[in-house]
User: What shape does this take?
Amino acid sequence: MTLTPPDPEAVRRAVEAALEEDGARDDVTTRALVLPEQRGRGEIVCKASGVVAGLPVAGAAFAALDPQVRFEALVADGASVAPGDVLARVEGPLAPILSGERVALNFLQRLSGIATATRCLVDAVAGTSARVYDTRKTAPGLRPLERYAVRAGGGVNHRYNLSDAVLIKDNHLAAARARGLSIAQIVEQARRAAPEGMRVEIEVTSLTEAREALDGAPDVILLDNMPPDEMREAVALRRGGVLFEASGNVTAENVRAIAETGVDIISSGALTHSARALDMSLELEG
Assistant: This one.
């Protein structure tokens, strides 16, 4: 499957915010020690095994400081990499290379960490019908880039934001039940209020709630923190075209067992909120 590049405007906004945050255009150390005409060349080297993501973002960070800096990616986002692999070369005026180094690496390490965590789960469920999805548990301001990293790792994006789809969660259920509505009625009311054709999903925590939800004919039933045996029973209740999603404490150790219950979707917030950055560095020649 072809990996769609990250949205250029989202990249620009994220890069500008990061450069401003880091004071990259007021780098007092580089200004004191590097001559304006001095040039440099270096390589971004991977120091751990994983999946790379964010090379276009790293390149954009250098280019935003000085378009004369040449950034050449040597691998593609989504590629598996190992310690010692050279991911990219950077060459040009030395001052903007040094001033942009931290921002470029921060993006590249974080996004590669997300892609690596995603690929781990995707590989673990290979051969089943389940697909690995992200959630909205992203770093504020970085959602477009972090969702891109999930795709680079072979995962699928869930709804982008609250306006994309109906997802009735525990607190929504509590609010509606306080008005005397049953689970089926809650689903039906959400369907009537949503734009035509919009997906309606409901979160349940028990088989009883799953049965009640099915009576409302949702598009997706999210099985939250259920043990695999209970998930399997819930999936066996399937009727019509309803999909089943599993979520809650998904790990590399238990994701295969979850997938084998027959669920269609496995969503994990940890892909974006807890992924460990992939270690890498910029090594200058000389």
Summary: Residues 94-124 form the longest helix (31 residues). The mean pLDDT is 97. The longest strand covers residues 39-46. The radius of gyration is 23 Å.
